[in-house]
Write a structure and sequence with these properties.
The complex is a heterodimer of chains A (445) and B (222). Helix content of chain A is 28%, strand content 24%. With 445 residues, chain A is an alpha/beta fold. The chains are: A alpha/beta (445), B alpha/beta (222). Bound molecules: guanosine-5'-triphosphate and magnesium ion (MG).
């Protein structure tokens, strides 16, 4: 297959697959390659065999029920915000046809040694143990203020300016307690450290609004999750790309990258199938190790197999638990994502809890202890550490556009920012989402 | 548009529809998309481009008292380099394995796809083996050496019998036997499709992202 393409994409992670899909829809001729024989790259959901092969190739595996493929274990613990940008892209591209979603049952936050439910409606807010009665009133005033805020109507701004005042100043204005600040900043705005306190309030305001809108959408929590695991997301976008003419080659290592112009510009790749040429390549960091740099952050992730729901979560089938950094004397939050057979990722009777945080010490596994304590007995725990990479440059000079590693946040908003940013760099125009209507689908209902 | 609302009107009196995910497999250019086009819109295009832009179609099929709504997944070319995603097979209740009766290589490929389906798809999947482009051999006399036919009916039937498949020879061009394939599959699909073991609560709590509704959305935001 010696062929010419508009774009070659390397790696089938979510970022790469969404871009393939969008570019194919735009009419670009896309060749998409992965060296591995499965879709998803770092965002794959592994079956039991693949999981133990990766984390414990020669070690012991506990006796577990179910077939290999009844397990779909994510390598990256993330949920989708129901009203977030990724959801938006899914809806506009009709990829929702290929993937079914369920809500995450609830969201919890760690406070003073125990976990409490983040209220998802008025009734829960009134009965919540998270705040005393006066603090609840101040919290309500704060949320009312943010909900009513209108950029064009100065009368809604009062004494504050979201673009000038820091978040700390906003908290001070509403006389919110420290615990409440932890709760708002980490369980609602989902910041993973406290840097935001001394920055202007606008981004935090936007995150709180996104949180509120996402909860309002389906009711239980702000999160949704695809049945059979996050690995369905890249597969869905790969299918979109293929439907619009994209060519897919898995299990195909890159033998050589070809350059033009005195080895400066990308020109194509050689594989076992022959030479494929294109002026542009989009790749995950593993395909161009010499063109990426470490961000300095490392993430530790622990996949824990349980035979019971997480204690004190009202036996919900799925939850998120945020342990704000302050509460356990850290600089970065610890996240726990819990899933069960309801999301078709484990056989009935099992629960999967994925714990993650940014490493701060020489003994990262010890850093996860506060989370392990919340989980109760674990059948098995598989741990991995991932370095977070980002590209050295924006790619315009070389035609080599590299995505960022998936960060430690609990959702896909930053990954979606990277997608939009790459789309802009590659095409020179901002991503505008228009609802796709396909040729023959007049026959659809 | 009008047709749609009529459809909905009729539906409210009809017995419940069974939704069936049907996947297509087979070598390039054997006529997979053409069979779908014939079934869905009773049309045929002489020089059909490789599948682009419409690889998800739905079509209802009435069999006696029952209505089956096929959700048809075309391969979209991902099979070219053996890169079909597991998503493609997931929960498929029916499959068409298509070959071209004038192309022996496509029949060999069909065997491969049947094997793949047995490995990847759910146990109770209904598979039909379909030898397409029957119109090209219609006027042939038996035993004629110049015959375009390269795969005999007997060979097809034998493979089908060995593997427990339905078997048809069809022509997307003349519409010969095309409806029969879908009716044949439909009548083999169990009345109330058994829930897959990995899908314990089939419809409970699923949300429809395009309309933004959840079946059990209780309460509102704080
Ligand atoms: N004579 C004849 N030609 C057919 C028949 N079915 C399809 N064709 C032609 O065969 C060619 C390929 O048909 P497609 O329907 O695109 O085949 P496909 O299997 O979907 O091909 P890919 O999408 O590339 O995998 C087209 O030129 C069709 O017009 C048939 O029954 N008889
Ligand atoms: Mg086709």
């Amino acid at each position: 297959m010696d062929e010419n393409y508009d774009v070659i994409v390397l790696g089938t992670g979510l970022t790469e697959c969404v871009l393939s899909g969008l570019l194919s829809v735009d009419g670009k001729k896309v060749l998409h390659i992965d060296r591995q024989d499965f879709y998803g790259g770092e965002l794959a959901s592994l079956n039991l065999g693949q999981l133990y092969n990766k984390f414990r190739p020669s070690g012991q595996k506990p006796e577990l029920r179910g077939r290999d493929r009844d397990w779909c274990v994510d390598l990256i613990p993330k949920f989708l915000m129901a009203n977030g940008e990724l959801t938006n892209i899914l809806v506009h591209t009709n990829v929702t046809r290929y993937i079914e979603f369920k809500q995450i049952g609830g969201s919890y936050v760690y406070r003073n040694g125990r976990i409490a439910k983040v209220p998802s409606n008025q009734a829960e807010a009134i009965s919540s143990s998270l705040m005393g009665i006066f603090e609840k009133r101040r919290m309500k005033q704060f949320l009312d203020y943010l909900t009513k805020w209108d950029d064009d109507d100065a009368s809604t701004h009062g004494a504050l300016d979201l673009d000038k005042n820091t978040m700390n100043e906003v908290y001070n204005y509403f006389r919110l307690e420290n615990g409440t600040r932890d709760f708002i900043g980490h369980a609602m705005a989902l910041w993973s450290n406290d840097d935001y306190l001394n920055e202007v309030a606008r981004p935090t305001y936007e995150r709180i609004i996104l949180y509120g809108q996402s909860v309002a959408k389906y009711g239980k929590s702000p999160y949704i999750y695809p049945l059979y695991g996050l690995g369905e997301l890249p597969q869905g976008f790969a299918r979109l790309s293929a439907i619009y003419g994209g060519t897919y080659m898995l299990d195909t290592p890159i033998d050589e990258v070809i350059y033009d112009d005195d080895n400066k510009k990308f020109a194509g790749v050689k594989t076992k199938e022959g030479t494929a040429k294109a002026p542009i390549v989009i790749a995950d960091p593993t395909y161009f190790p010499e063109k990426v740099k470490k961000t300095g952050q490392k993430v530790i992730r622990a996949m824990c197999i349980l035979e019971h729901p997480v204690p004190n979560t009202h036996d919900l089938d799925s939850v998120q638990i945020v342990i704000p950094q302050n509460q356990v004397g850290r600089k970065n939050d610890i996240y726990i994502a819990v899933l069960s057979d309801v999301h078709c990722v484990v056989p009935k009777g099992y629960y999967l809890a994925i714990v993650s945080t940014i490493i701060e010490t020489e003994t990262p596994h010890v850093e996860l202890e506060p989370a392990f304590k919340l989980l109760g007995p674990r059948l098995d725990t598989l741990m991995g550490i991932a370095e977070i990479y980002e590209p050295q440059d924006d790619g315009t000079a070389s035609g080599i556009y590299i995505s960022k590693s998936y960060d430690a946040t609990s959702h896909f908003e930053s990954a979606t920012d990277d997608i939009k940013d790459l789309y802009f760099r590659v095409t020179g125009k901002p991503l505008v989402l228009e609802k796709l209507t396909e040729g023959l689908n007049g026959l659809d209902e | 548009m009008e047709l749609k609302s009529y459809d909905k009107y009729r539906m409210s009196f009809a017995p419940p529809t069974t939704s069936v995910k049907l996947v297509l497999l087979g070598e390039a250019a054997v006529g997979k998309s053409s069979l779908v086009l014939r079934f869905v819109s009773n049309d045929f295009q002489e020089n059909k481009e490789p599948t682009i832009g419409a690889a998800f179609l739905t079509q209802k099929c009435t069999i006696g008292e029952r209505t089956i709504k096929y959700e048809i997944w075309d391969t979209a070319g991902q099979e070219r380099f053996a890169s079909l995603a597991p998503m493609y097979y997931r929960n498929a209740q029916a499959a068409l394995v298509v070959y071209d009766i004038t192309k022996p290589a496509s029949f060999i490929k069909a065997r491969h796809w049947v094997k793949e389906l047995h490995e990847q798809a759910s146990k109770d999947i209904t598979i039909a083996l379909v030898g397409n482009k029957h119109d090209l051999v219609e006027d042939d006399n038996d035993g004629d050496d110049s015959s375009l036919r390269k795969v005999s009916i007997e060979e097809g039937q034998k493979l089908a019998d060995e593997e427990g498949l339905l078997f048809f020879e069809t022509s997307a061009k003349t519409a010969y036997n095309v409806n029969e394939v879908f009716v044949g599959i439909g009548s083999k699909i169990p009345e109330a499709p058994l829930l897959k073991p990995q899908q314990p609560q089939a419809t409970d709590g699923r949300i429809d992202l395009s309309t933004g509704t959840a079946p059990a959305a209780d309460g509102c935001a704080c």
